[in-house]
């Protein structure tokens, strides 16, 4: 019985250490406040690209919605810069997801992706779809990627 207790405490300590590493992992805003060049919607295993026509004020509207979202804060950039990156953490585990939005003329380009793991299970697409709906924009229906 004593060995089982020791094994249980070791497992619990390992979980606490891993969760601490996830929560406290250093973040360099320069590494995340970037956006690849894309011109159409795409869903992939770790996130989504979304391109929506918003007019020139789209990023300001997006900023208001993202800033009001639970567990979400501005990481880098600003509306004035034309590029802003937000970090949203999961409720229980604290996993960070990064969302970068850029105003490109009348289009808003949104790139949402995970930091840890291989699949976000559609969470980023659902979040961005919800944020765009709050802006009054109907996004492309979500589908899990084929890869």
UniProtKB/TrEMBL annotation:
<protein>
    <submittedName>
        <fullName>DUF1499 domain-containing protein</fullName>
    </submittedName>
</protein>
<dbReference type="InterPro" id="IPR010865">
    <property type="entry name" value="DUF1499"/>
</dbReference>
<dbReference type="Pfam" id="PF07386">
    <property type="entry name" value="DUF1499"/>
</dbReference>
